[in-house]
Amino acid sequence: MPFAVRTRADDGDKHTSDVNALIFANNKLYSGANDGKIKVWEEDLKLGGQVDAHTAVYSLAASNDTLYSCSNDGFIKAWLLDSLKEKGTIYKGEDEFWKLVYVDGTLYAGDSQGQIRFFQNDKIVNNLGVLEGVSGLGVQGNLLFSVKELDVVVTEFIPGHQGQFTTETTIMGRAPLIVEDGKFAFVSRSGRDLLVHNACKKSGFNLIAEVKDAHEKIINALVAVKDGSDLLLYTGGWDKTVKQWKLSGKNLSLVNQCNADFVVNVLAAGPKGEIYAGGSDGHILRIDV
To answer: pTM for this one?
Structure first.
């Protein structure tokens, strides 16, 4: 099976500084970077449009028709997916917003001071404090998975009941973090080991599989794709390498890897299983799997 770079964004089209966010939605790829721009790309990485969004774009999330962005400027903004026309500012605070996730009609936003705000219909409906900046965020049902500096925290919340939260467990680890197919994956405090746990309260959120020294340098990016009964994980980081792992039962094994030629900050999966990587100096590439 091929695992190689198919195409890269043209130098004249790419961001002028590090890419922090990638998301595939509406049959297009959206990117956000330290240059403050959001760009939209076709599947073959032909530039389709761009907008000056923030001082720097830290994270992106999407509903069926709306793209959400957050920044070090304290803004959370909403954009029309099909045109990137600004719909408005849904929140303005004094602190940086680091992470956005949209799940089942709710937008979750984590900031630099450890506050996670819940938005429905662009209005705050709940707020959770986790004491430290939120560098990773995921949701499954009524379980929220967040990353503080060196810990992953699992919190249970009661939908529709403001302020009712229970901390279920805390596990040593750091971002990146993803939640997929009843599992959550993240990296060790060293930044080089890859860990997968059950995202299930009854299981005690037990460890399923672990790979020591999955990368030679710190892992910055992680994305998962369902593959039948298995789960494919993709990782990238400071060693400028993107790796493909297969989780089959309790076995997590390396399947493929390729050189990205830049520090990988973020990964996203396309509809055909293709993987997009963004990173240093605005570079974006597509890997065919």
So the answer is: 0.96
